[in-house]
């Protein structure tokens, strides 16, 4: 391993961390604005032009707020839990190609930290480890609402791992590789080659599972404000709570990238136009997360489990079997 | 709309009341399955998505950006009280009759009077305890001289609320009166200028 590779990787890691931390903040701004417009409100307006500096104000508030550790919590676990959420979210980004490779001053840059051959498996695995953030944080909090939230997060994440894994199995069988770059190149021929046309069911299933795994609104049970306060985040304050928040929003961006790359052609043939198309697709999926939050009600936990085990999982299995038969004959 | 059909609260042909048509809950597994399939493919979720998207595109924002924009309030809005002056002489309208003090149901008006050198009753102290005032408006209603009225001043953030309701603060300043800025509410019970509200003569 030469020095240039190490330096390049460190630079990429820093860039991804900075860009997506900033995007997580901007994501909250867009979420407030989009939700407000859909509800005929204006949203943040007072800090900066059109409230744009609200992000900075929130950041200053989160950073300078007192970090309260309640008396009866399990202190080491309580302290480490938000770090797990944020860290696993960003670790999952290591195998995601955010951009096609490009050349700067004669030096070819691959905008992916590590093009490992088990790419998507690694991404899903890291996102699954993200479960330990809410689970440990909720159980260590000495708060019954946090405890309920921890139980729910364990149930929801583990259940929907099954759906997301099984639904991805069919496209992966077609591509024959787990690397996200290989999956992208499989669809490089244009819109007609997108996997969404040959695997629409898998696309819908994975999209639904993405909502459960990021804990967004139709499946927003883990930190459901109106019934269990902020769930696992109830006892957290200041930047520890902010880490949960950054983790959630970073996860939304990364899962949007994953959906766009696997099913909607990613960056296509790697041209500049393809790269911007990828960003457009990701923006759409991120916007859809906000859109559903304005439009749809939450489901109950038992309905969520019912949906997972009695509807989505059988459909995913049938989809895999049919894909297998079609590929055999 | 006539209210007669609504008076009969029983569900019948004549009354306006009827039972909401609720479908029977499915009991067998096959019926439940059919209900799930029907609800899944009826596309109601997309109706919800369309409704919020339509509102976003129409951009029909109803927010009032309060400190910058204010909604108009009615002329008889019951905010912090004002003591008015006679238009032609600038003399205080209050004759110290004490009716407002008497009628105040939360007992928050306090006034002191004396007889001045012209044998005219003069109000020396007049204060309203805003901590107890419920803004019922009885004082303004009972006042025979239209001396105490409710103002439109609802922004009463200050170091002490009491500062709004001592006599010097409630009474219309003389320069306000001469520049014609003393507001009178319109409508029933309002004054007829130069006629009803003039200084009562001491002797006829």
- Element-by-element helix/strand order of chain B: HHHEHEEHEHH
Low-confidence stretches of chain A: none
Return Rg of chain B in Å: 30 Å
Beta strand count of chain A: 2
Characterization of the model:
- The complex is a heterodimer of chains A (329) and B (204).
- Helices cover 68% and strands 2% of the residues of chain A.
- Chain A has helices at residues 3-38, 54-64, 75-92, 119-129, 132-140, 144-175, 180-186, 195-198, 200-214, 225-228, 238-263, 272-295, 301-328; strands at residues 102-104, 107-109.
- Chain B has 204 residues and is an alpha+beta fold.
- Chain B has 2 domains: 5-58, no CATH class; 81-178, Alpha-Beta Plaits (2-Layer Sandwich).
- Chain B is 25% helix and 10% strand.
- Chain B has 7 helices and 4 strands; from the N terminus they run H-H-H-E-H-E-E-H-E-H-H.
- Chain B is elongated and about 100 Å long.
- The two termini of chain B are 57 Å apart.
- The chains are: A mainly alpha (329), B alpha+beta (204).
- Chain A binds chain B through residues 34, 37-42, 45, 291-292, 294-296, 311, and chain B through 36, 45, 48-49, 51-53, 55-56, 59-63, 65.
């Amino acid at each position: 391993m030469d020095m240039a590779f190490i330096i390049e990787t460190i630079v990429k890691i820093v860039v991804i961390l900075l860009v997506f931390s900033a995007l997580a903040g901007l994501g909250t701004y867009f979420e407030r604005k989009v939700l407000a417009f859909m509800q005929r409100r204006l949203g943040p307006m007072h800090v900066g032009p059109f409230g744009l500096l609200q992000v900075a104000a929130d950041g200053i508030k989160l950073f300078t707020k007192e970090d309260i550790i309640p008396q009866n919590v399990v202190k080491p676990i309580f302290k480490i839990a938000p770090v797990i959420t944020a860290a696993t979210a960003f670790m999952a980004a290591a195998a995601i190609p955010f951009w096609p490779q490009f050349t700067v001053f004669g030096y070819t840059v691959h905008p992916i930290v590590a093009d490992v051959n088990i790419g998507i498996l690694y991404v899903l695995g890291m996102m699954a480890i993200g479960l330990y953030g809410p689970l440990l944080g909720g159980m260590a909090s000495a708060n019954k609402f946090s405890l309920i939230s921890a139980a729910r997060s364990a149930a929801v994440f583990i259940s929907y791992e099954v759906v997301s894994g099984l639904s991805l199995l069919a496209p992966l069988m077609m591509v024959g590789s787990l690397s996200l770059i290989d999956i992208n190149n499989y669809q490089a021929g244009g819109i007609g080659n997108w996997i969404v046309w040959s695997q629409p069911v898998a696309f819908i299933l994975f999209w639904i599972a993405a909502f459960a795994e990021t804990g967004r609104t139709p499946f927003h049970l883990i930190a459901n404000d109106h019934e269990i306060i902020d769930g696992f985040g109830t006892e957290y304050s200041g930047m520890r709570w902010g880490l949960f928040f950054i983790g959630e929003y970073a996860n939304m961006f990364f899962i949007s990238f994953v959906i766009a790359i696997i099913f909607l052609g990613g960056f296509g043939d790697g041209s500049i136009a393809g790269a911007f198309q990828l960003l457009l697709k990701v923006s759409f999926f991120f916007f859809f997360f906000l859109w559903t939050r304005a439009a749809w009600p939450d489901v109950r936990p038992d309905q969520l489990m019912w949906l997972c085990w009695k509807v989505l999982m059988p459909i995913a299995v049938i989809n895999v079997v049919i894909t297998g038969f079609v590929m055999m004959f | 709309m006539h209210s007669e059909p609504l008076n009969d609260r029983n569900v019948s042909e004549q009354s306006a009341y009827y039972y909401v048509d609720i479908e029977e809950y499915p009991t067998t597994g096959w019926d439940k399955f059919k209900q799930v399939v029907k609800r899944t493919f009826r596309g109601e979720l997309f109706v919800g998505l369309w409704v919020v998207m339509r509102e976003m595109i129409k951009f029909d924002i109803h927010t009032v950006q309060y400190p910058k924009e204010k909604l108009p309030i009615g002329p008889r809005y019951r905010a912090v009280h004002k003591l008015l002056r006679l238009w032609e002489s600038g003399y205080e309208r209050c004759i110290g009759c004490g009716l407002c003090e008497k009628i105040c149901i939360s007992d928050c008006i306090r006034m002191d009077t004396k007889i001045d050198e012209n044998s005219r009753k003069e109000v020396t102290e007049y204060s309203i305890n805003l901590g107890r005032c419920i803004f019922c408006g009885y004082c303004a209603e009972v006042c025979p001289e239209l001396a105490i009225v409710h103002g439109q001043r609802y922004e009463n953030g200050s170091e002490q609320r009491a500062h709004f309701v001592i006599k010097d603060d409630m009474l219309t300043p003389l320069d306000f009166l001469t520049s014609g800025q003393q507001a009178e509410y319109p409508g029933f019970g309002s004054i007829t200028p130069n006629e009803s509200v003039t200084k009562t003569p001491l002797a006829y």
